[in-house]
Design brief:
Elements (H helix, E strand, L loop, with lengths): L1 E4 L10 E4 L10 H4 L3 E2 L7 H9 L4 H17 L3 H11 L3 E5 L3 H4 L5 H11 L1
Length: 121
């Protein structure tokens, strides 16, 4: 599983391109995005996203809270989470985000938490 910014040019090695953001990336035309699946339900909730934006130095707490949200989705048999798992079995998947910090500090994004959850469950 790879990570890229949604604005990056699609490449054949991307495999399936899955947008893992709750909001559509600003200024990105859907026609040019080459997104195969929008997994908006398996991203941090709006309150959690806003909390982390205000507390970027508390990634461990964000991780804990987001993992709890994912566990709740999993327990409820969330359709998008199940679809994402299916896509992962079909070949390469690149998780996309609009986050600017992906290049600067990729250890502190929701994509890593999502990947870790999917690998553990």
């Amino acid at each position: 599983m790879r990570f890229k910014r949604a604005y990056d040019t699609p490449e054949p090695a991307d495999g399936q391109r899955v947008l893992a953001d709750r909001l559509w990336p600003r200024g990105l035309a859907k026609v040019k995005a080459h997104i195969d699946f929008w997994a908006k339900d398996v991203t941090p909730s709006t309150p959690l996203r806003k909390w982390f934006h205000e507390h970027p130095d508390q990634f461990d707490e964000f991780r804990h809270r987001f993992l709890a949200e994912l566990a709740e989705l999993d327990a409820g048999h969330n359709v998008m989470l199940q679809e994402l798992r299916t896509r992962l079995t079909e070949g390469p998947v690149t998780l996309l985000t609009a986050a600017h910090r992906l290049e600067d500090d990729e250890a502190h994004t929701h994509l890593h938490v999502l990947r870790d959850f999917l690998q553990a469950h």
